[in-house]
Amino acid sequence: MPAIRASADLRNDYGEISTFCHENREPVFITENGRGDLAVMSIETYEEFMGKIELYQLLEVGLNQIKNGEIITEEEMMKELNQYIGK
Fold first, then answer.
1. 19 with 5: CB under 8 angstroms?
2. If DSSP states are collapsed to H, E and C, what string results for 5-31?
3. The pLDDT of residue 20 is above 80
4. How far out from the chain centre does Cα 19 lie?
5. Side by side, which strands form the sheet with 28-32?
6. Residue 25 pLDDT class (50, 70, 90 cuts)
7. C-alpha to C-alpha distance for 24 and 62, rounded to whole angstroms
8. Which terminus of the chain has fewer Cβ atoms in its 10 Å neighbourhood, N or C?
9. What is the mean pLDDT of the segment spanning 31-54?
10. Cα-trace Rg, the chain
11. Does residue 38 sit in helix, strand or coil?
12. pLDDT higher than threshold 90 for residue 59
C-alpha cells in the first residue's frame, strides 16, 4: 500500500518522510487539499528508476531494429566493439 502524506507533513515531518523513503526504497505521495500533488523519493530510488527507464528505452530501440531488419552478425558486432575500444 502506498505511503500517502499531507503537504503539511512534508514541512513538519521532513526527517520522518526522508527516513521512510531511504529505508523502504519507495516513494511517499504528497497530497495538497486532499488531492495527489507530488511523489517524493530518495535519490537512490530515483536513480534506480531512471536506470530502468533507460534500459527499457534501449530495449525498445533494439526491438525496433530487429523488427526493421537492422541486424548484424556476431562477427560484425565484435569488429565494431573492437574499433570502439581501440583494439
1. no
2. EEHHHHHHCHHHHHHHHHHHCCCEEEE
3. yes
4. 20
5. 3-6, 28-32, 35-40
6. very high
7. 33
8. N
9. 97
10. 21
11. strand
12. yes
